[in-house]
Specification:
432 residues; mainly alpha; two-stranded antiparallel sheet; 21 helices; elongated; transmembrane helix; membrane; DUF445 domain-containing protein
Length: 432
């Protein structure tokens, strides 16, 4: 994916603090609270079965007073709410949206192609079909030139120029002029730029549904090597406070090393419990609407960088491909004009078809006979004999060439002798 395009998405269209500030910490805590019970029990079983929790009778957890249960639930909710608020305040250090977008594109490269087709399908169709219209108009000019310059090579050269100019004009038509420009009664602007609202809707829908989903963002937060240290530290600090408060409530003092292990285990197991948030987060962040509105508000110069960078990477290739195809078409025209190439007539085609029908085997016996002839010819084929014949022919041609060179040399020497004799006669004194 074009680096310019990624930068545009991550810097101009999204404000992480604004977007994640839409989450309600109390709602997040409400959704995650049931998961904390399962998560906590799993951590206790893995890390602290024989430590400070072992001194607490199991009956205490089963038969806690209602008031104590409510207090624990409140502490649980408060922990989750406080942690959500802390994440919102530090989201830029916890979530690298640029890496998240690039990772999605690298893991499934077809996504970039899908996005490109969704946003630029009309431009691709125009680039394909423009050859007919631009080629026709430029072909008229080529025809006029041919009337005044009667040279078969004008067709090949003209085809090269027309092929080059066609794709060049199509690309210019798509992206230029960037700003609306009045030309008499007309307002000219690049075809892609005139579709800003339509493209904004397609672009934002694709990003919200395929790239920046809650699941993909949480996965990036929990696994990106650049941001996981900050997330682990933030979670560990809040988890230590939460666990210490609960332990003090039971008049127990946990080992700091055990608490650190428990926090690490909690982070490790957290990906299996955040799925309860995905539906709420996707709905509450409203990324599709945010991206759409921000893209519609972009200036024409900014919006032009959404799709043009992808064309720019292969722009020269597109133009040269048009030039080569134009040259090939011109060479074919030149061959037909000069007679080097001929188009078979309808009579030739019918005769060829009739000849094929006549030579086709009409029965299984004919097929067997034909196969037998092929087999016999293959078996009788002698490569050494074929090479020998070729060598003899080449040898005779070389001899003939040497003979011709020898004759030319002898003729040249005889002429020199005649010229020398004439010169000596001219220089000798005349007899009286």
């Amino acid at each position: 994916m074009s680096d310019t395009m990624v930068t545009m998405v991550t810097t101009q269209l999204l404000s992480l603090k604004e977007v994640f500030g839409r989450l309600d910490p109390s709602k997040v805590a409400e959704l995650l609270s049931p998961e904390v019970v399962t998560l906590g029990q799993s951590i206790v079983d893995d890390v602290v079965p024989m430590q400070w929790m072992s001194s607490i009778p199991q009956s205490v957890f089963v038969e806690l007073p209602t008031q104590t249960k409510r207090l624990l639930e409140h502490m649980n909710t408060q922990f989750l709410s406080d942690f959500t608020i802390a994440m919102q305040g530090n989201i830029e250090s916890l979530f690298n949206v640029r890496d998240c977008v690039i990772d999605q594109m690298m893991m499934d490269r077809s996504k970039l192609g899908i996005l490109f087709r969704k946003c630029g399908q009309k431009e691709l169709d125009f680039l394909t079909n423009s050859g007919l219209w631009f080629g026709f108009l430029l072909g008229i000019i080529q025809m006029i030139v041919a009337l005044f310059w009667d040279n078969p090579w004008s067709l090949s050269i003209g085809g090269l120029i027309v092929g080059y100019a066609t794709n060049w004009l199509a690309l210019k038509w798509i992206f230029e002029p960037v700003e609306p420009t009045r030309f008499g009664p007309f307002v000219l602007q690049g075809q892609f730029l005139r579709r800003q609202k339509e493209v904004a809707a397609e672009f934002s829908t694709f990003f919200a549904n395929e790239i920046l989903t809650s699941e993909k963002m949480w996965n990036s937060i929990l696994t990106d090597p650049k941001t996981t240290p900050a997330f682990h530290k933030l979670f560990k600090d809040h988890f230590m406070k939460f666990a210490s408060a609960i332990a003090l409530g039971f008049k127990s003092f946990p080992n700091p090393e055990v608490m650190s292990m428990a926090a690490a285990k909690a982070v490790e197991k957290l990906p299996n419990h955040v799925h309860v948030l995905h539906s709420y987060v996707d709905q509450q962040l409203g990324l599709r609407e945010t991206l759409r509105v921000k893209m519609e508000q972009m200036t024409s110069a900014q919006f032009e960088r959404v799709l043009h960078p992808i064309f720019e990477e292969d722009e020269l290739t597109l133009i040269l491909a048009g030039a080569i195809l134009g040259l090939i078409a011109g060479l074919i025209q030149q061959g037909l004009t000069t007679g080097y190439l001929t188009i078979p007539t309808w009579g030739d085609i019918k005769a060829g078809v009739k000849n094929m029908k006549d030579n086709m085997p009409s029965s299984w016996e004919d097929v067997q006979a034909l196969l037998l002839r092929w087999k016999t010819s293959v078996m009788e084929f002698d490569l050494k004999q074929v090479v020998s014949r070729r060598f003899q022919k080449m040898k005779s041609r070389v001899r003939a060439l040497l003979h011709r060179v020898s004759n030319l040399k002898s003729k040249s020497s005889s002429r020199e002798e005649e010229d020398g004799g004439d010169t000596s006669n001219a220089l000798s004194p005349k007899e009286p």
